[in-house]
Amino acid sequence: MEQTRNDPVSHPAHYCTGKIEVIDFIEDQKLPYHLGNAMKYICRAGKKNPEKTAEDLQKAVWYINRYITLLGKEAAK
Predict the structure, then answer these.
(1) Cα 11 to chain center, whole Å?
(2) What is the DSSP letter of 52?
(3) Are 15 and 23 in contact (CB under 8 A)?
(4) By C-alpha distance, which of 74, 77, 76, 40 is closest to 57?
(5) Nearest one of 20, 31, 17 to 60, comparing CA atoms
(6) CA-wise closest residue to 11 among 38, 53, 60, 44
(7) What is the pLDDT along the chain (77 residues), one digit of tens a residue?
(8) Which of 46, 44, 54 is nearest to 23 (CA)?
(9) Contact criterion met (CB below 8 Å) for 60 and 45
(10) Contact status, residue 67 vs residue 35, Cβ threshold 8 Å
């Protein structure tokens, strides 16, 4: 089954605004879960809902801060 770049499941429009999809970048860079999610929220900020741009960016910050905390816990072991 051929999928378009605006398929709501596999290619949501708010992730397909550039030359590559966010997931392709995340996988190429082998980003860990937290950083991948942060990247996702940064790249889509305001595209799904312009009124939630700040909320999307706050979510990215939350994932980054959580990853920083995780790194600190791992370093303390």
Answers:
(1) 14
(2) G
(3) yes
(4) 40
(5) 31
(6) 44
(7) 344 556 666 666 655 667 788 999 999 999 999 999 999 999 999 998 999 999 999 999 999 999 999 999 999 99
(8) 44
(9) yes
(10) yes
